[in-house]
Amino acid sequence: MADIKGKMPITLESAIKIKQSLLGNDEMKLKYFGDGTFFLEILKTLHDSDDAMLLRECSIILYAYINFSDAWKRDLPDLTKAANTMIQNCKKCPDTLLEITILSISKMLSSQVIPFLTIDDLIDTLQCTITNESSSERLTANCCIILISELAQMDADPKRNDLAISLISRLYRPIMQRLGDLIAPIFIRVLKQNATLSSLKEFDSIFEHASLSNELPVLLYKASSTSVPNSTLALTSLLNAMAQFLSVLGRHHHIVSIPDTLTYTLYGLLRSSSFELKQAAAAVIVYYSSYHLSNKHLITANFQKVIPVLMSIARNDLLSREQKEDFRSSMARKNFEYNGPGRLSSLHLLVECCEHYPATVDKLVGLDFVDLLMLAVDKLTRDFIQDEDDAHHLSDCLLLISCICATDDVKRELVSQYPINWKKYIGSYVQLCRNILNRNDITVSFELLSSFRLATETVLSFCYVIRSMSRSAAVLRTSFELKDVVINMFEILKQPFVMDFLSTIDDPVLSNNEVLLRSVILGAISNFAIGFSIIREYMDSNSVQSALQPYINGTYRSINSQDRTVLLVSALQVIRNALYSDDAKFREPFVTKASLESVFKLCEHKDDRVKQQSFNILRNVSAISIAQAEKLNDIYMDSVPHELSHDTDFLAFLHRHLDSTEDFDTLTAICYIFVNFASSTLDNQRKIMADEQLLKRLHELLQISLPSNSAKAETIKLWNLKLSIVWIITNLTWRQGTAGSSSDDDNDSSMDIDNTSSATVTPSGPCSTAKERAQKLIKFGFYDTIQVLSRNCDIADFRERARTAVFQLVYHDE
Questions:
Q1: For position 195, what pLDDT does the model report?
Q2: 217: DSSP letter
Q3: Integer Cα distance of 368 and 354 in angstroms
Q4: pLDDT of residue 246
Q5: Residue 245 in 3-state DSSP?
Q6: Which residues contact 571 (CB under 8 A, 6 or more apart)?
Q7: Which of 334, 522, 731, 810 could form a disulfide with 678 if both were Cys (CB 3.0 to 4.6 A apart)?
Q8: Cβ–Cβ < 8 Å for 402, 355
Q9: CA nearest to 373, candidates 352, 348, 409, 355
């Protein structure tokens, strides 16, 4: 070994021996790369040699260490020079060196140890390779997918992420050109087989009418046909690469288009006899329709075409796995389905369909498809999975089940009838985390880390299902056999992030999955915390509060500010729902002075999602009782946020945020706090009425209008805001016996409001009577505005509340 490690020049034979000794052997990697002279000898060989095969072996050796440990960031200072050398070698021998060079350079880029400028020559080389007809389509596609996979992981740094997407987009046009060369003869054949005339005019007509039908064009194309010289494998490879481009660019809001000729040919390829080819075509259609198309009719038609094809492929896959007669090899699945950031398996593509075309779920629930999914889950969860293909397959099955459960209680009840070994699988994951955290991070083996990656992915999918199931009131009112699962969920929340512990490893996907897992767990627990949930009996509120604190305080160092915000929002959601309860003992830890002061601080957060959840917590606190609403004011007046802001009282604090906020959800949360204070005491009613700037702001918000082409969700948010303001007016003018109760009970927070304000208190001072308040509100224009809104709104709840408010105003003005 000593001769190999630098005392003699590295030869092809010795390089092969070194490579073979390194693969899968972490101990040997440490021995070799602990010697600085060995690295220098590798660099020297890469610089001096003209032997393409020797350069390839040395590049593989270098990549083995780069991919093994992040220690190379510190130990190998001359990586930019090494990267430039590898790129220059690649330009001389692209067919031999391109793939391994891209693997190495992409890893260096994603780990931020070399500048982006380094990759310009490599991108140029890859562009030339893509457009070179003599180069292998499989090599071209694999290189593109490798580059996309690494560069797409740079979400943590917006500047680097923008550069990464820019680099990826530079390859889009060349790959489209190469694909166009393959597609052209197939398009002509498909068009001739489906049109009485082959004119372009008729093609346009066929394409336009395709949006009205889910029928697929006939395809008589066979890959072995001598008249069509392109192999199925070549076409499949490029289509898979194209799907990856569409997935990554679309998720980063970089919109591209593909020509109608390609789209129409893809319709034809959906009838191909090759499962891989039709699945690749389906992947392109799914990701293009999900992220890049804006024509709703065409999007719907595309999904209608592709869903039956994907269900057929998925059903065959599920059956063949069950019968152990797989119609595709495990290696083929790994190559075609899991090699890249955008999953291309039929099951995962159906998940994408569910997310972007909700009608997909109804198509899935029928025949024996759910039976097959649940059978696969049962079989795969009997033991803790170690096989990568099985782990991905289980994850896809669970994600699709979670989509089915996400829609309505009928489908949740259907899934709940099947046995799932939640306890064993999630419990095994907790133990695996402990095994890693109890070690020195240097001693965590590659195999153990690989197991943790796979386990995190599958447990994340399990928790997606649990969260979807927890949205059902029927499920929450039963034990759902989740006692031990809930306990293990809290164990996961309490444990440090494994990526905090593994300081020498850089794995953006694993880091992201750890964050997602905890966010999904927090989402499920927020549902379990609701008052009518029997599962809440397994939860001690003090323990819940303790488990939430690290996420509220943002104490984990391995995650970026964006992920910390995601976890913070999820933790606040738990507190919000914990307050949705009549159980004063369970609420107690969340309404202490310390807890509420931290909420006041978070109301000043720059992120609208954090502010929204914080004000919703205060909304639920103010709804508990009049005494609790008054306590809010007392605690605020004695808090640090009050000292920093100099607000005169809690209502002034609310007014300040009402003026500075534009987000409809946050405004609605603030207004519902005013709803509760407006129905509490006469003193609070007088304070609200005395603040004329507040009344003007509320009236302004009532008059907001949106453009006619605004998204439906945004329109609904605005009407919810206006409804909350109408309730404020109703409560300010309320007189017992004039109508039904006008409290916040039937909205999404727990209310216990005393509506007997001015009717039972001896009037004293300005705006002390409901009549005086009504007259002032009419002068501010509320009567006329609410009347107009009521006539122009087709939302029944708003119209009913508006009629009540108008009646109160008129009643007291007479």
A1: 62
A2: P
A3: 18
A4: 92
A5: helix
A6: 522, 548, 551, 552
A7: 731
A8: no
A9: 348
* pLDDT computed for residue 116 by the predictor: 64
Which residue matches tokens 């534009």?
Answer: 662
**In the structure encoding, which two tokens stand for residue 367, read together?**
């025949």
Q: How far apart are CA 281 and CA 344, in angstroms?
A: 10
Give residue limits of the domains in the chain.
3-165, 174-516, 625-813
What's the pLDDT score for residue 117?
62
Q: Could you tell me where the beta strands, DSSP code E, fall in 607-739?
A: none
**Same fold across 3-165 and 625-813:** yes
Instruction: Tokens 């050796």: give the residue.
Output: 61
Q: For the domain 3-165, what is the CATH superfamily, name and number?
A: Leucine-rich Repeat Variant (1.25.10.10)
Both ends of the chain: CA-CA distance in Å? 102
Contact at 8 Å (CB) between 94 and 121?
Answer: no
Total Cβ atoms within 10 A of residue 354: 23
Q: How far apart are CA 278 and CA 267, in angstroms?
A: 9
Reading the block at residue 569, the tokens are: 């929002």
| Distance between CA atoms of residues 109 and 163, nearest Å | 11
Which residues, given as ranges, of the chain have pLDDT below 70?
1-8, 26, 34-36, 68-78, 110-118, 150, 152-160, 194-231, 323-342, 367, 384-386, 440-446, 478-481, 502-506, 557-558, 736-765, 812-814
Kindly state the tokens that stand for 266: 């893809």
Predicted local confidence at residue 530, as pLDDT? 84
Task: Kindly give the residue spans of alpha helices, DSSP state H, lying in 388-507.
Answer: 388-405, 409-416, 422-437, 446-469, 473-476, 483-494, 498-501
Checking 260-263 for CB contacts under 8 A at 24+ apart, the result is: 260/203, 260/204, 260/207, 261/183, 261/184, 261/187, 261/203, 262/179, 262/180, 262/183, 262/187, 263/207, 263/288
Contact 749, 619 (CB under 8 A): yes
Q: Give the number of other Cβ atoms within 10 Å of residue 746's Cβ.
A: 8
Of 569, 553, 546, 560, the C-alpha closest to 512 is 560
Output the pLDDT for position 197.
47
Q: Residue 479's closest CA among 408, 528, 418? A: 528
Paired tokens of 64: 């083995």
3-state SS, residue 460: helix
The DSSP line for 353-410 is: HHHH-TTHHHHHSSTTHHHHHHHHHHHHTSS----HHHHHHHHHHHHHHHHHHTT-HH
Predicted confidence at residue 726, as pLDDT, reads: 96
Amino acid 725: pLDDT: 97
Looking at 647-764, which runs of residues are DSSP E strands?
Answer: none
Handedness of CA 635, 638, 642, 644 (dihedral sign): negative
Say what angle helices 682-690 and 692-702 make with each other, to 10 degrees.
80
CATH number for the region 625-813 comes to 1.25.10
Q: Which amino acid is at 800?
A: E
H-helix or E-strand spanning residue 83: helix 79-92
| pLDDT of 778 | 94
Q: What is the pLDDT of residue 813?
A: 56
3-state secondary structure of 158: helix
- Please report, for the chain, how many H helices and E strands are present, in that order: 43, 0
Contact 578, 749 (CB under 8 A): no
What type of residue sits at position 814? E
Contacts of 602 (CB under 8 A, 6+ apart): 552, 568, 572, 610, 611, 613, 614
Q: Which two tokens stand for residue 305?
A: 């075409």
Torsion of CA 364, 512, 283, 162, to 10 degrees: 140
Whether the Cβ atoms of residue 287 and residue 342 lie closer than 8 Å to each other: yes
> What integer pLDDT is reported at residue 4 of this predicted model?
46
pLDDT at 750: 38
Among residues 250, 311, 246, the alpha carbon closest in space to that of 278 is found at 311
Whether this prediction's pTM lies above 0.85 is answered by no
